[in-house]
Here is the input.
Amino acid sequence: MTTIHMKKVPLILVLLILGGCAALFSQERDRGWTLNGYVKDLQSVWMQDIRDPWVTWTTLHNRLDFRYAPADWVNAVISARNNLVFGELITSYPMLATTADRDPGLLDLSWKPGHGASYLMTTQLDRAFVEFSRNKWNLRLGRQRVNWGIGLVWNPNDLFNTFSYFDFDYEERPGSDAVKLEYFSSSTAAMQLVGKLDSAHQGTVALMYRFNRWNYDFQWLVGTTPTDLVIGAGWAGQVLKGGFRGEASWFKPRDGGRSQLVATLDGDYTLRDGWYFHGALLFNSAGTTGKAGAGLIMPESELSVKTLTRSRISLFAQAAYPLTPLISLGMAGILNPFDRSGFMGPSAEFSLADNASVMILAQVFEGQSGTEFGDYGKLGHIRLRWSF
Amino acid sequence: MTRTRIRHEMMMLPHYTSLFLLGLIPLMGIAQGMSATEIIRKADDKTRGKSSYGVLSMTIERPGWSRTVEMKSWSLGTEYSMIYILSPAREKGQVFLKRGTEMWNWVPGIERMIKIPPSMMMQSWMGSDFTNDDLVRESSIVKDYTHKLMGREMVRERECFRILLTPREDAPVVWGKIIAWVTTDSFDSWMSEYYDEDGSLVSTQHSYKPQRMGDRVIPTEMVLIPADKPAQRTVLIIKEMKFDQALQESFFSQQNMKKVR
Here is the structure.
């Protein structure tokens, strides 16, 4: 254990120092090297109810994106995500440390360089790939984000990597250990063949074709996951100038179980004065129309396209408005219409400078015990972000 | 949402540029006897070229603060354009592609191609001094307006044609009228006033600092000032620009969006 720690600490230090240098000497490196990233300071508080004990914690989050492109036809990317969490959350829930360095990928690229009674340090490489392109072909090998999602809230077509809408502090989202071969058949059409292996050496293989017709983007996909055969389709276009998108995936379990359909509709509209309205619906044929309680928020690694919601239907609504060019206000909500539980997320983001911003966000879950959102409590966050 | 807004507004920039740049090409002596429409067309052709590549920055200036976006831009005619964001750091690497009336945004951090719906184009850029409804609809100062030569005037030490642009009846434009001052010796759009449908002045655009960019001399700094907020400005600076580059339609592809740097 100790030896592992000894090995990992210098890596973190090297990464942090490199990050600092990049910030000092600007982003552009000579000979095809670039380094970008950010540092975030996230202050959070969680409570079941306002009168209950408050649990507070701080997350220092650093991201480093290295890219090396020695020639037009080849480039390599390594991205590191370094987190230091400290405070009552770690003290109160020591089990968080035991799963913190569990890597769901084929390669173990997650480490826990340090933890104690009050702090937890983690490092993960969530991108590590090389990419070759020639004519209309593109081949990417290694840990990468394969994103087949079209919707802005839920993505039934995103077979390779599902994320939780509530994990707002991880925009980049995790990567998969995969091989991706892409062929661009026209300026707006492409075929992707992707194979992925996870930490249990189980594979997902899928083929997706994306094309443009009648001012719409369409895609279809077929694939096989460790448990299911999958067929899916999606589109992005417009109705009355508003965005109109959808995705559907049909799963046929290989063990002969019941098949499942997961589908989403998604629309948004922007008014000339800047008001933005957005609505979405998620349908899950395997979902319940009763209480859809999960008991606890599922860890990232157990999320899948089949469990985007436990309800038969989930509804989403959002409004946002730029109060000034520097201040944007937003409100998002999710409702389970069957068990009447829901989520409200008011937010405000302030631009402090070209490369710095602060965001204030609440995540308020409401509902009776045992409902989909009833047991999550309430969270508040303040996040300072500096990008380089 | 600021991020999304910035993103979607970025796509407007080639249009702003052409609106801004409205003019150049040293065609001395030809001006005599030209119609107002020919003058406007020459000014428009000069700023667009058949194709172009440029490095630009745009700064929103307000009392007490300013924000800057830097970008590379490629265009072919009015149909195709691509923009690569250089800064701010948070948006760096994002690419915008316009093909005809369709637009896409490639966000490399999340590996996502987003199709931008038309309503998103109706916003102003970061709440800046631009309206872009007419630009979104690809309105053309040549085709969508009638032009009338009102005389000649000195504007900041340059002799200019003063031309009144009145929108054609069914033209998809937001302005009630535009008055453009185009330099007589070099067809630079030196100043423009934009009026609403009630005839009130909305904003004034000035061009400065003519410099050689590729095969021609063009103003490299454009400033837009809203009439009712004289302390606000939006400044566009051309750092580098080349015209009539060997760009093919195939350059403006989703494959290239993912590769361009």
The two ends of chain A are 34 Å apart (CA to CA). Confidence is low (pLDDT under 50) at residues 1-15, 19-30 of chain A. The first helix of chain A runs from residue 2 to 24.
